[in-house]
Amino acid sequence: MIILSPKWIYLDNKSLTIDRSILVDGGKIAKVLSENDINKNFSRVKRIYYKNHIMIPSFTDTYINFDDCVSKFQYEQKIENILRNGVTKLQIVTKDYKKLLKLKHDDRMDISFMITLDGSKCTQADISNMIKTLDFYKSNPNQLFNINIIDILKFDNKIIEKVASIANEIQFNVHIHLNDLTGLTNKEIESKIKYFDDINILNNCAVHDAIMNRDCIFGYLNKKNISICVKYSELDTFENINYFISLIKNGYNCILISDKEKSYRFYDLIKILNILNRNIKTFDSNKIIGCVTENTERYLSNSSHKNILNKGATASFNIYDQSKKLLLNNQHKPKLVYIDNESLTNVWSNGKEVYGKY
User: Fold this and answer.
1) For residues 69 and 54, what is the distance between their CA atoms, to the nearest angstrom?
2) Strand pairing of 352-356 and 15-18?
3) CA 8 to chain centre
4) Cβ neighbours, 10 Å, residue 326
5) What is the 3-state secondary structure (H, E, C) of the chain?
6) d(Cα 205, Cα 175) in Å, to the nearest integer?
7) What is the pLDDT of residues 192-222, one digit of tens each?
8) pLDDT tens, 57-91?
9) Burial 240-260 (b: 16+ CB within 10 A, else e)
10) What does the pLDDT look like over 332-341, one tens digit per residue?
11) Using N-to-C axis directions, what is the helix angle for 238-249 and 266-277, rounded to 10°?
């Protein structure tokens, strides 16, 4: 067991709480402690202080493309860069997932894979190969898979229905790209969505390209059953950012993804949102943290615990030094907008420190 005592903790993804510590035991947060709790019951437990630091949950990227990695070295370098930005859970998208599965994976991170099925060329043999892969890894609960559907309109009905059956039987999550529906009339979109709903492929699915297809899609989708994956590259105008904010305010489960980005852009986005938030008083900009933490949980974990900091949660978190930030801003309490990859000093994953900058 070990006690970690930052100055501020972002408890339950709600607010920064001062003078609380966490007791880490076996990869979990066993307790959230006050100073009085520590003095009474845990005074002999090893304790680490982070005197001017914020602790928040570590991040997740549920859709990050690795096709730019042509060698084992490039793969390892990309993983290391992601980790140093505070991401400890990621889902890899690649045309050749079998090749990457053969590599030794970084045990500091929780890594899962997308199996991409392309409707323009998917055959029954591809489905059989996918089933063989799933059977091979079914004894390993830590190796998770989801399905990435490309060109969904071009699937043979029998094959897409088989995919839906497999996804529901094994409780996979399916990613669908709304750009595949462009060119259809509203009536045709409604008919296709109804068919996909009837075969139960929309149950707990993740949809992409929502920002660019905002006018005619969401009236046909039940927001309780979907998550919306938003690429950082889609948030390239104030109009798109404001629409993204409106989705969060309207109760959609939004997830931020890197896809083909060369660098991790989350820190840039929260600074932009903070500027916009001065004119959008009804939006809590801290909710953006949920788009890379608790909102992602059902896509990358067998656990029922959300990726937040509280008793029983996985002990995966980032720690940011705020001493310089507070001096520059002449404040006694930081804002989450102050976090960035430069002030990130420590990354913990499953109860172990996996990156430290001292």
Assistant:
1) 33
2) unpaired
3) 23
4) 15
5) CEEEEEEEEEECCCEEEECCEEEEECCEEEEEECHHHHHHHCCCCCEEEEEEEEEEECEEEEEEECCCCCCHHHHHHHHHHHHCCCEEEEEEECCCHHHHHCCCCCCCCEEEEEEEEECCCCCHHHHHHHHHHHHHHCCCCCCCEEEEEECHHHCCHHHHHHHHHHHHHHCCCEEEEHHHHCCCCHHHHHHHHHHHHHCCCCCCEEEECCHHHCCCCHHHCCCCCEEEEEEHHHCCCHHHHHHHHHHHHCCCEEEEECECCCCCCHHHHHHHHHHHHCCCCCCCHHHHHHHHCHHHHHHHCCCCCCCCECCCCECCEEEEECHHHHHHHCCCCCCHHHCCCCCEEEEEECCEEEEECC
6) 6
7) 988 998 998 887 789 999 898 876 566 777 7
8) 999 999 999 988 888 899 999 999 999 999 999 99
9) bbebbbebbeeebbbbbbbbe
10) 778 888 899 9
11) 80
Residue 194, number of CB atoms within 10 A of its CB: 11
pLDDT at 317 over 90: yes
CB 83 within 8 Å of CB 355: yes
pTM for the full predicted model: 0.92
Q: Is the pLDDT of residue 50 over 50?
A: yes
Q: Indicate the average pLDDT of the chain.
A: 88
Among candidates 191, 140, 199, which has minimal Cα distance to 165? 199
Is residue 278 pLDDT above 70, yes or no?
Answer: no
Backbone angles phi, psi at 164, to 5 degrees: -60, -40
Tell me the two tokens of residue 279. 């004119």
